[in-house]
């Protein structure tokens, strides 16, 4: 039975894990707290970047000899394999930890088994404390492991009546500066930001993160089947890496030096799952979809949206494009019903966060 002290320690580990969002892929975000034999916190750590020390290693280094006989609280089952770093299960054993409490079992067949290794060495192991909280913080990596594609968040900004632009096409700015700053936080927590050619032509977005200290710049992805992007587009500067996804037969001679992905395209352009497979192969585990209504509709129709973050401004337009275009839904019984997980005031605006139920 977990104690209040156990819960406090694991909640701290979950908070530590969140510090790695946007910089650890293709690895998970993981946090670890170590207490000594008397229950006092003596070390903590989190996985900061792929190839760097795992959370357990950082926490054990901070704890030193004080870890012997103590407890390690980890948000993910300690790994059991040697990659660019050694197995964390073995590191915990060598440190003399007497008890390991972890939140989420590792679904990765290459790394799981750490709990069994620990038990075989005489370490007391417990699983499941704050599992839902830890899984929510690591949802991008878990989605990628389980589904073989990146986790996708669709972000949009709209008026209270659901318009993303006025009838004449103007859209800057529907939401407040505070809401726009919050979008940069979402970008910083994502591995890639995706827009379509329509948004590129209409807005010439930059898509790099601004105003977030220490942020790892996400991969900027332009879905542009005919390679209509101009070499002067702001997204092609050196502020962040950029990938332009085009059809296999697209003429890209006007884009020397640009990272190009040639993907199969049909009547409606490049397929969503083909793009996600390409990104997954590049180590992308989380995607922030910032395109317009048509691109969002194609992702929803493909069943490839996992989370929706909508910024709603207390503004009415009455006409203009809606936030979501054709998503293949023709009747109310086919409506994609979401689970709202949070509603927050961001300046004068309302941010609604919702997830797509499993199996939807």
What does this protein structure show overall?
The protein is of the alpha/beta class. Helices cover 25% and strands 24% of the residues. It has ten helices and 16 strands. It has helices spanning 4-17, 55-63, 88-94, 114-120, 131-137, 139-147, 177-188, 197-203, 272-281, 293-301, and strands at residues 31-35, 41-46, 71-76, 99-104, 124-127, 151-159, 192-196, 219-223, 242-247, 259-263, 265-266, 269-270, 286-289, 307-313, 339-346, 349-355. The strands form three sheets. The protein has a nine-stranded mixed sheet, sandwiched between helices. The chain has a five-stranded mixed sheet with strand order 2-1-3-4-5, with helices on both faces. Strands 11-12 form a two-stranded antiparallel sheet. Strand 11 and strand 12 (269-270) form a beta hairpin. It starts with a helix and ends in a 5-residue tail after the last strand. The mean pLDDT is 93.
Low-pLDDT windows of residues:
none
For the biggest β-sheet, the strand order reads 10-9-8-7-13-6-14-16-15
Fraction of helical residues: 25-40%
- SSE string: HEEHEHEHEHHEHEHEEEEEHEHEEE
Overall pLDDT level: 93
Strand content: 15-25%
Distance between the ends: 34 Å
| Helix segment tally | 10
3D shape: elongated
- Number of extended strands: 16
Q: Tell me about the biggest sheet?
A: 9 strands, mixed
Radius of gyration: 22 Å
* Structural class by secondary-structure content: alpha/beta
